[in-house]
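Notes from the 1:1 (GR / supervisor)

We went over the backlog. Supervisor wanted to see one worked example end to end before approving the batch request, so GR pasted a single chain during the call. The sequence is below; no edits were made to it. Supervisor asked that the structure be written out right there so they could see what the output format looks like.
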Amino acid sequence: SKRNARKAMVEYSVEVGPSYSYREVEIDTALLSIDTLVEVDDFRKQIKAGDQFDVQKLTEARSGISGQFQNIGYFYFNQDLIELSADTTLGNDRLDLNVRPIRELPEAVLSKYRIGQIEVHLSKSSDSVTSAPATVRYKDLLIHSQGDYLKSTVIHDALYFSPGDLYSQDAHQKSMVRLNNLGVFSYVRINYLPSARDSLAKELDVRIDLILADQINFHLETDLVMKSTGFLGPGVTVGTTNSNAFGGAEKFQVDLKGGFEWQWAASEEAQLGTFSYEFGINSSLTFPKLMAPWKNSGYRDLLNKETTINLNFDILNRVQYYSMFSALTSLKYSWGKRQDLRHIVTPVYLNSVSLLETTPAFDSIVEENIYIQKSFEEQFIIGMRYEFNYDNTYKKQLHNIYFSVGASTSGNLLD
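Structure output shown during the call:
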């Protein structure tokens, strides 16, 4: 470096040899003999003869096998216990791969474990360290809490495992996702410990630590709108959200909005008004369950499930011409068995639009233009919607996909 004699740039040139590919892929019967329920078809699809050697792909395939063991009770089984042996002495850039368990697996690894006692420790960051929490039993849960912060049924319904169930890594992950999706916790942790009642039993006691986040939040949004019709003006939205409105992880949100616009460009003769203002209120109440009039046992296995009720009001005043009132209410169900898939059904939404007041100037324009007259008629619209979303952007990978498609109808069926 001309500026610093103690600094230098180093360039490296790397020449890579030819890549290896698999000649044979063999899975040792000792691995399959641990449990006959373990399938290796997915491994053979990912790693097969003729494929190019890929460490990342091989690691993911090995993790898939260990995950199967963990989903049928083998709590202490992990991918490091699966040994990968590659013979690269064949020549012609070919190798043989052998997949087998390591020698002398510990007894704990070869044992299936069941869920024992489940304890939930629910707290707030403001809890006193000197006060002892109260203990409440709800079904098969022991819940320790210093206050009546959250209904016990919400926590119970979020768990995919119960006492007596075989340990399952999938059930653990789904429970974590469902607890976090409730939107009321700042911290979620699930730990598994050897049974305190019987150290020789193949049982795992579960300790779930939950710390509640701040319940009430405020938000402010401002914007500047410029329209092709020559109107320009500012807008503001201020609102509050209660993430645990009634103690059952219900999310209640209220937004107050307002805006003002004026005509900055030259107006046309048929243009309606030179300035206007608008104000309204948007509110929604979301329940962490499907509140349908019918019961379905399949609801229990849904990873995402919400019922939302919306109620919006809006008043627009086009000064010197008219003032308009609109109201919208809807009932919406949202659910999905996987984190990346979601169905959204709005079985009914109602939208009412009506003129509150008009001026003689406005009436004279409407009488001369049938199109404007029709567009300002009082309307009461009933409709329904369906939407499908695929979103894997939560995954840490090079390429992600967000896809949404939907359909809606308004009034046609009833008409």
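Supervisor's comment: The chain has a mean pLDDT of 90.
Batch request approved.
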